[in-house]
Structure formats: C-alpha cells, structure tokens
C-alpha cells in the first residue's frame, strides 16, 4: 500500500461519509499534480522521498480533513482522542457489569421463557440508559474543559508520513488465530465426547485425586448439535488456512455457524439444568473440599456459574454475528487502490 493511499485513507476517516469519496478523489488528484510538477522541476521520476516531501507540505491527515470540514466542534482535536479513550473504557465497564447482573438474574431457578425475555429487555433498557447517561456526562465534562480552558496543551510529536499504518485487507485471514482456534476446538471435542468425567469438581485427599462429575443428562442432549458446530468450525478453519483469504461463501458459513451456536446456547440457557449432583457427590465434596450444608445450595451456585458463562459467550457471539453481517452486507472487503498518475 503506497504512502499516498495510506494518507488518503487516513484523511477519509475524518470526513463525512456522504462526501468522503469525492474528497478522497480530489486529494489523490492534487497529490498526483504536485508530484508531476515537482518531478518536472527536479528532472527525476517521483520516488518515496518526493512523496514524503509533498505529504509534509500538505500536513497531517487530520489537518487536511479539517480544511474540508472546518473547525466547528464541541470537543476539539486536542481532547478528542482522550475523549474517545475514556468513552470506550467506561462503555466496556458498563457492558460487563450489565452482563454480570443479567447472568445472576437468569440464575434464579424456575425461570420461564417469558420471564427470561422480560429480564433481557429490562437489562438491555438499563444498559442503554446507563450508556446514554455516561455519554452525556462525559461530553459535558470535556465540552466544559474545551471551552473554559482553551489554552490547554496536549503533547504531540511531529507528524511523519512513515507513521501511517498499512490498511489491512478484510479478506486476509490471521493464520495464528485460526490455528489456535482449531487446536482449542479439537481439544473441546475430545474432552466432551471422550472424557466428560474430567469435567467436574476435583480435589486431593490422602495422596489420591478424586473427581466428582457434574454434567447432567440434559447437557448430553445438546452434545450432538455442539459437535456439529465444532466440526464445522474446524473444517472451515482448515479451508481458510488453505485459501488464506475470506471468500463470500466462507463468510456466510461462519455466519451460519454463529447463528446456529446462538440458538443452541439460548436453548441451554432456558432449558433444564446442565449440572447434576447426587447425594454421594455431596459426601465426597464434604470430605475433600469444605463442609457444604445443602446440596441444593451447591447446585444453585454451580447453575449460576454456568448460566453466567453462557450469557457471556452469548453476548460475544451476538456481537461477532452483527459485525460479520455488517462486513458482508455493507462494508467493502478489499480497499480500492488507485495508482499514482492514473
């Protein structure tokens, strides 16, 4: 990716979507004209050093974008990066807290489907309200700082065109991530299908390791469907590792697997308990770990933990599904490259 394309791309990130394409084309044309004039004046072909000189004359991408959008703002460019950082941190904290509260809410025994939906809508409403309140307060604080301390200085170093980041292709795969995902998925398949007794509460006693299995029969009714999802994930990862690029068909397969996984997770969440403890298990646990006064209390604690994990996984899967659909339906996968002088 040439410095010119990377520069134009950075400028475009700070431009309104409606006029972005036209302005980007205008900037490319201006840079090409400047390079042609300089090349004729110096009697040599344009090279990277010449491009760097031209881009330095134009100024940083933010400065170039401001020349088109003007300097009208509520939170100026000095404070905007800090504002976004604070907003991201606070939003992440609020989302995690909302997920935890929701997880403990659905851990209540005997919850019906209607109660689950009602709790989900209520939790979502509380989260949205919290995010809006947080956004309003942060904007107000930064706006007050912007207008009451106009001379505030933010340290910044001299901008260098070489600092522009390469534009990653959305069609390229990350082999390391795919390999790790494949290895982990195969491990999960082997664990749940061949060694389910390893999943439980373990402890040492008198030099011997004891394990109390906790998976219920209800869990194993979902196992064939989970195996189908896991096997599909492994096969898809292998295909991607061979092609080293995303194709439309592989993206849709990934979306289908995520959607299917969300359905199974939801069924596991509202269905019978995935944990089963017998009275014999309680005796073993009392001997090895601590005195548990009630099997029902222990069962409720384990159910709440499992529900919380499922909720967190559901949130991640839904977010990834939305991102995948947006990328397929609305986002250009391969950046447009226009060669200098074209």
Descriptors:
mainly alpha; disordered C terminus; 342 residues; 11 helices; two-stranded antiparallel sheet; 2 strands; elongated
- CA radius of gyration is 28 Å
Strand percent estimate = under 5%
Helix content: 55-70%
Along the chain, the helix and strand elements come as HHHHHHHEEHHHH
End-to-end Cα distance, whole Å, is 15 Å
Number of continuous helical runs:
11
In spatial order, strands of the major sheet run 1-2
Quick one: how many beta strands?
A: 2
**What spatial form do the alpha-carbon principal axes imply?**
elongated
For the biggest sheet, the summary is:
2 strands, antiparallel
Average pLDDT value? 80
Low-confidence segments: 288-293, 333-342
- What structural class is derived from the secondary structure elements? mainly alpha
Number of domains: 3
Characterization of the model:
This protein is mostly helical and 342 residues long. The chain has three domains: 3-69, no CATH class; 80-163, no CATH class; 175-329, no CATH class. Helices cover 68% and strands 4% of the residues. It contains eleven helices and two strands; from the N terminus they run αααααααββαααα. The chain has helices at residues 3-12, 17-42, 48-58, 61-69, 80-106, 113-148, 175-194, 217-243, 248-270, 279-288, 295-329; strands at residues 200-205, 208-213. Strand 1 (200-205) and strand 2 form a beta hairpin. Helix 5 (80-106) runs antiparallel to helix 6 (113-148) and helix 5 (80-106) packs across helix 11. It starts with a helix and ends in a 13-residue tail after the last helix. The model is unreliable at 288-293 and 333-342 (pLDDT under 50).
